[in-house]
Amino acid sequence: DTAVSQTPKYLVTQMGNDKSIKCEQNLGHDTMYWYKQDSKKFLKIMFSYNNKELIINETVPNRFSPKSPDKAHLNLHINSLELGDSAVYFCASSREGLTGELFFGEGSRLTVL
Amino acid sequence: GQQLNQSPQSMFIQEGEDVSMNCTSSSIFNTWLWYKQDPGEGPVLLIALYKAGELTSNGRLTAQFGITRKDSFLNISASIPSDVGIYFCAGDTHQFYFGTGTSLTVIP
Questions:
Q1: How far is CA B30 from CA A32, A58, A95, B69, B96, in A?
Q2: Is A52 within 8 Å of chain B by CB?
Q3: What is the DSSP-derived secondary structure letter of residue A40?
Q4: Spatial separation of the C-alpha atoms in residues A50 and A33, rounded to whole Å
Q5: What is the number of CB-based contacts under 8 A between chain A and chain B?
Q6: Residues in CB range of A70: below 8 A, 6 or more apart
Q7: Bridge partners of A6?
Q8: Can you tell me the distance from the alpha carbon of B13 to that of B32, in angstroms, rounded to the nearest whole number?
Q9: Among A81, A85, A96, A106, which residue is least crowded by beta carbons within 10 Å?
């Protein structure tokens, strides 16, 4: 009965490959997010998405694309992976209004070789 | 993006000591939050602050939202080994932005 779940937890792949990370939340929240945490532990927002709008951090390369089949899911697809994409990616969700608590998943550690 | 600076970057303290860390920004935030991240886990909310000047406690944790809404501090009293982790401040405007983190090590 995990609130925000991500799969896979670990992902090792070669440069140039395309990969996806899945995220599901069972909290009934309206807004979901993807964050990237680099080796220095800095958490950087990549996307926020609800059923009304997608907000993209302008520094995120267009190789990254969020895909939401429904309100409970926000998957992250990455094309043409690069070495610098290696990081831990966190999915999170919150109630509409963007105030209050973010609920995070356990993270997906991506290693690009 | 918004920049939130936390200090200190890391702390090494003896069990039982009190801890103080702060977070500053050049931007005004509507809401200020403090999160803790354990190794291998996602951040978990500790305290949420909604009003300028608000002082809120959660057990041994106390946090305050600055009057200007550009800063906040978090205090932990009588630290214990399970307080180890990375503490993040986060500010909410149209999106959530996280601070640079304070790594806390508690020595038994």
A1: 19, 22, 16, 7, 10
A2: no
A3: T
A4: 9
A5: 59
A6: none
A7: A23
A8: 26
A9: A96
A4 touches chain B (CB under 8 A): yes
Amino acid sitting at position B71:
D
- Could you count the other beta carbons within 10 Å of the beta carbon of residue A7? 14
pLDDT per position as a tens digit, A42-95: 999 998 888 778 877 778 999 999 998 888 999 999 999 999 999 999 999 988
Residues of chain B with C-beta less than 8 angstroms from the C-beta of A104: 42-44
B96/A contact by beta carbon, under 8 A = yes
Q: CB–CB of A48 and B95 under 8 A?
A: yes
Res A12: pLDDT? 97
How many residues does the structure list for chain B? 108
The β-bridge partners of A64 are A78
Distance of CA B68 to the CA centre of its chain: 17
Question: What type of residue sits at position B86?
Answer: I
